[in-house]
Amino acid sequence: MSRVFVASVGLVPIGDQWHKSISDLMVEAALKALDKCPWAKPDRIIVGNMFSGASSSQEHLGALLASCLGLKGVPAFKVEAACGSGGVAVHEGYVAVKAGLADVALVVGVEKMKDILTPQATKALAMAEHADYTQVVGTTFISLNALIMRYYMEKYGVTREEMAAFPIIAHKNAVTAPHAQFKRAITLQDVLNSPMISDPIRLLDSSPAGDGAAAVLLVSERYASKENLVEIIASEVANNYFLVVEREDPLFLEATYIALKRALDKTGLKITDIDFFEIHDAFTITAALSLETMGLSERGKAPRDALNGKFELNGEFPISTFGGLKARGHPVGATGVYQVAEAYLQLTDQAGPNQVKGAKYGLTHNFGALDITTAVHILKRVG
Hints:
Blueprint: E1 5-11, H1 22-34, E2 44-48, H2 52-56, H3 61-68, E3 76-79, H4 85-98, E4 104-111, H5 118-126, H6 141-156, H7 160-163, H8 165-174, H9 188-193, E5 196-198, E6 201-202, E7 212-219, E8 230-239, H10 254-267, E9 276-278, H11 284-293, H12 302-307, H13 324-327, H14 335-347, E10 361-368, E11 373-381
Parallel strand pairs: 2-3, 2-4, 9-10
Antiparallel strand pairs: 1-7, 1-8, 4-7, 5-6, 8-11, 10-11
Helix pairs in contact: 4-14
């Protein structure tokens, strides 16, 4: 079994990429990663994507990318796990290298969300939920999260002001993130005065739609250089019951808990050994539930901890260090790859003003729908 290293990454700034196709975005991210390691030719290509068929009338993304790169004969395929597609794609690349099936795995996450109208995007996102039981009654992905957020606030007595701490942190970190979609800070009043989307979720509680692509080049020990190396020391995927109503506790992210426990057990680390966390903060409520499930806050206390600075860039447990899904952006199928790329930048001291000082270990956390499929990676600085 080989160790698995991140040798290089490529990031496309997230935004309205009207002049670029989905293949343009994939190729741009891939070349940014490949150009930094000219000695490493991919022998496996994996693309993470959620709904290219609905947004771009294009499937078969793995073979498309391979063809665009002039790589004939290489195993190439797409991985889909709703909003967790990118994280699961990185996991599949990790498994291939770990098992000796590949020495160089190119993993690219991509999504084009701005080429379709909002109702179409909403319908595409709803496909992450059960067609027979959730979609059929008109429940959108946002309204499902709104129900969970309302339940959480009422159960724990959490105020709207306290919940707003999460998007404020995310936007503060995004100001100096070159690839972020929204490079501006926001205030409490900005959050509270933003338009209502699905009560109690307001516009600034919700991650934006955007176009983007990110790439990570995973290599075995044979292809690892001695500079700017980061090792993936654990990669785990777990699933939860598909329907929230089937779960014993809808405020506990069991897939997150299982994947995290497996990852920590394999590394021998404690959660407090991790120096920063790229969490799945698609909505304010998912940020709170993620941190509480991980044990970084007591149940019902994460918003207050956030308000008190615990999760700031210079806090005890920094989160969303480049803006997270909320402000860096959430091109859904690409998000998990962006997170791993950002962890790489942190662990090679290439994060600039967003650098977490002295970071040795980083964790990425990406899930599809509401914790139905969750991928957790723990990365370690080498040298």
